[in-house]
Amino acid sequence: xxxxxxxxxxxxxxxxxxxxxPYRRRTGAFAAWWALTWLMLDWHIGMVETxxxxxxxxxxxxxxxxxxxxxxxxxADAPAPWMxxxxxxxxxxxxxxxxxxEPTRIxxxxxxxxxxxxxxxxxHGALRRGWIGRAAGTGELVRLxxxxxxxxxxxxxxxxxxxxxxxxxxxxxxxxxxxGLVAAGLGHRRCADALVLAGAGWxxxxxxxxxxxxRA
Length: 216
Description:
Layout: H1 2-17, H2 27-43, H3 60-77, H4 81-101, H5 105-128, H6 134-158, H7 164-167, H8 174-185, H9 189-215
Helix pairs in contact: 1-2, 2-3, 3-4, 3-5, 4-5, 4-8, 5-6, 6-9, 8-9
């Protein structure tokens, strides 16, 4: 864990010292964010084990997930197309890599948190720079809020894990929403608005259907 955190801090510091933006101007935000990430990993170190209780070190799947966490402060400033594309690629890879090396309990929960954190940061950055319209940004932020609220309600309301069918229902729409963020970074605002709104609406329908099935 210390090696992963140190590598992330070193990579950011190298870019900041070289004068690369937005890394240089977001150094303070990154330091606070990465410290919180370190604390979160440290507090949950007992969850870095397989479902049957065997400890396993952080591996390639966790690296993919942490890459999205690492990008959050930069995406909140200016979500460049390559950042959104990298987030989409790592999102597709971490699940497959985890299944090959046996998923851990922390990996299962960290993946969803990383997805939500990056998406919220990228939307904030895109809205701040006027790359997408407020209607599209608000629609996607509402979708993220509903998903996060559902997870909190189940965890604290029933002390049980949220239904994975509901949590992962919107995964099918990820390419559409990622495409919208990439289009926003490329300056295609109308296309970005259409894709983000379509992805948010489609996600809402998928989540609603999954929730209804979970209650049946």
